[in-house]
Here is the input.
Amino acid sequence: MTTYKENKIFRILSAIGIILVVAGHLGYNLFEIGDLFPYYSFHVFIFLFVSGYFYKKEAEERIGSYILGKCITLLVPYFLWNLFYGILTNILHGAGFAIGEPLSFKTLFLSPFLDGHQFMYNFPAWFVPVLFMLEVINVLMRKVLSLLHLNYEWLIFAGCLAAGILTVWLAIGGHVWGYYKLPGRLLFMMPGFQMGRIYREKLEVHDTLEDGPYFLIVMGVQVLITVACGGLAFSAVWVSSFANGPIVPYLTVVTGIAFWLRVSRIISGIPYLAGKMVYIGRNTYSIMMHHAACFMLVKGFFYLCSLYTPLCREFDAEMFFGEIGFVYLAGGAEASKWIYLLAGIGLPLGISEVQHRIGQKIAKVREKTKDKR
Here is the structure.
């Protein structure tokens, strides 16, 4: 019997990534280290990096079962929740909300692969179908290259990076639009997956520099990039907003991941904090899927307060009913974003826990049924 050993550092890195995503959707720059590491200059790539790190070459010998496994773990829960949010959107349309598209074949099955913003209450989960497609492309590409005896990690990384840089260059020129967004998104994001492979196969063994010099180098490079460039943030989902040419986005991906990877290593040595972060890292799927809807619950609470109490009188009901990105600040205080942040992480963790317990009960029922046979 083999024992599964969890990689705490990468669980913590995943937790940091999802916290940055949730904070980013609030416009809360609390964790940007004095605007040095803007979330939108790297945070989506953290999940690609982690996924690439855990890719195993054995998948190339069982491609069918590998893809089936990815369908079960990534797509099946996505489409079930997409149906849930589609039904919820239709119900809320009847209650006066203007957020999201109506439920249809397109919004259920096609839009998730085209843009992932069909119902809006689950829009952060646009990443799930993209990750699935990247995983499939990666394993098929590697299988073909292995048959051609060209499956060298540095060659794969260089080829993907070149394709990504070309995609950014085309996007800056206005050529990645409409239906070109999907292939553009995949080509732009694939280097992030391969960074995880390169790190595990070639670089991790050399990642031994002490914390002081390490942070001095990473932060020093980031300061230089920040001073030399006019804004580092970009949009991974829309393949847009590249203000500094086709190479800088990948530089900020490297520096951002390098910084938080070392922070993850440090946190892994603090038992209590590490335990909490690992737990969050195990449940990034749920947080990604539900945190925008949980923000709506918080806003719904403030809306009810504005109707039935003397509090929150300045609440903008029109924005609440029409704009998913609206964030009401209680008392005008920026610190009230902590309420959203905690709800956006804590409530999805509760949903995940309920799902886990239901799964355990179903498994026990199956075991009993097998025993009776």
User: Anything to note?
Assistant: The chain has a mean pLDDT of 95.
